[in-house]
Hints:
This protein is 26% helix and 24% strand. The protein is α/β, with parallel strands linked by helices. The strands form 3 sheets. A 6-stranded mixed β-sheet has the order 10-9-8-11-13-12, sandwiched between helices. It has a 5-stranded mixed beta barrel with strand order 1-2-3-5-4. A hairpin with a 2-residue loop joins strand 1 (15-21) and strand 2 (24-29). The chain is globular. The protein starts with 14 loop residues before the first strand and ends with a helix. Mean pLDDT is 86; it is low at 206-222.
Amino acid sequence: MTDEADHTAESWPANIVIRVRGPFYDVLTPQGVVRCVVRGALKKERRREDLVVVGDRVAVRIVAPGEGVIEEVAPRRRALVRRARDREAAQVIVANLDQLVVVMAAAQPELSLGMLDRFLVVAESQELPTVICLNKVDLDPAGRARAALAPYRTNGYPVVETSVVTGEGLADLWRTLEGKLSALAGPSGVGKTSLVKAFRPELQLRIGAVSEATGRGRHTTTASELIRLDERTFLVDTPGIGVLHVWGILPEELGACFREFRPYLAACAYRDCRHVDEPGCAVRAAVDAGEIDAGRYERYLAIYRELEEEVERQGRWEVERLRRGRGTR
């Protein structure tokens, strides 16, 4: 297991990267925000994909008022990583998280349990504590979306229900965020930026609408940015992710990324059970007995098939290489 991310630890540098703009890095220091570049030698030591990212703790040398050079990056204790869009490589979105808050909408756009499960698999594979935030509950008077999340509550995922329109659940969400460095992640249009503005209304953040033609949200956040809510509370609003690919996981590792499967994994008749169609599979028996939600199991099968195709397309060595690139540095 990775160590706790505790961003208040005294052993860490006091300086934290809050924004990345091309070759420049805005670093929050005890003296204020400093616009920095990276020391040349440091560029050679670290991978290009995750040279310095939002959430990194860094050592800074001041070279002029408001300007500095990043001399060193502290080891990352935890990170949210996805596959880079234009190449087969790991891309760190934000470092040193205490928790991931997956925001889904009760409506507009419609709740996608398939997308939610992919976020949870990514979080479980990277050992990220995760909270589910169901936003826009004012648009779900019948409570269908709330009911759909019952299996996740059973599996131990904290669920916070919120509405920026009515204010419902915002105090609960604040208690979840307080004293932590959290990342808001989720599809576009679910209201992540609106939630940020609920706590910092003075921020100049653009809020997107949902397309009537596609039912999908329009991207308004284009780059991750760390927002300070108070002295001990930080929030990262990540770019909306329309399609999340589960990657860097071998098919046989997927079962462990479903929390409710774990008590049954050792009870399967075969050690290499895929939990697909093997005789004596304890996971499938638990599904048949109603102990594991059938919908979650069906989505497991869909992700499993994707991972099998990924291994066939790239080879196991390449998948393992991507997984190694997913590690913290």
